[in-house]
Amino acid sequence: MKNRLLPSFGRRKARKLRMASQHAYDEKLSLVNISLDSPPFDPLEKDIWLEIGFGGGEHLLAQLSQNPDVRIVGCEPFINGVAKFLLHLPEESFSRVRLWTQDSRYFLDKTTSSYFSRAFVLFPDPWPKARQHKRRLITSDFISQLSRTLKEGALLRIASDDPSYVKQIQEVLSTSPAFQHVDGPATPDPFTWSSRPEEWPSTRYEQKALSQGNPCAYMTFQKKN
Ligand SMILES: C[S@@+](CC[C@H](N)C(=O)[O-])C[C@H]1O[C@@H](n2cnc3c(N)ncnc32)[C@H](O)[C@@H]1O
User: Fold this and answer.
1) 103 and 194 inside one domain
2) What is the best residue among 4, 5, 6, 8 to mutate for testing ligand 1's pocket, by most ligand atoms within 8 Å of CB?
3) 125 is an active site residue
């Protein structure tokens, strides 16, 4: 990636980390941190998944526990979120998770083609004001960058509670030659949205949205063969 990207995330750090979180961050991050010298996992592994913007890691932890044969790369630049995830990461899962703690787009750029068999982008920052839309992560450029790293047939799950972002996501994915829509709403009208599929673990952002009465759109796309 040659040009500096406009950040799609807000702050990298909020409040001071609690002692236990700081300790988890200091002790565990080096064990799972990605260096760009080699792929995070052997590309011959059958199932390597990707979660972009995992926040506090609720969904990533649930997927690790429900899928013991899967390896997962998590990308999250928000240090408090990374520390929270590491605090709850059980030791037996260390070998199955790798973290990239900067903008995922720099990591994707260095990732080999056809590497991931599934990807999640759950509740990307909505940047709701029109003047902020240029900061949104899901654009045609991002989707073609992500697509290169996905295997044929790989599933891509995206969720959002912002109707104008849902519209943008649907437009970007429906005009991408690489993906087909397989599940979830095809319109930005919240009245056409239904509840979270049972096998999708919940996230903190989602719980907050639902508690404020905001419906959420859960969409699944598949990389074409
Ligand atoms: C609204 S939060 C949602 C967090 C979590 N997925 C959830 O649902 O609770 C969006 C997250 O995406 C992260 N993010 C934004 N841009 C990103 C990027 N370019 N690469 C990786 N993560 C990013 C932010 O730091 C933030 O933690």
Assistant:
1) no
2) 8
3) yes
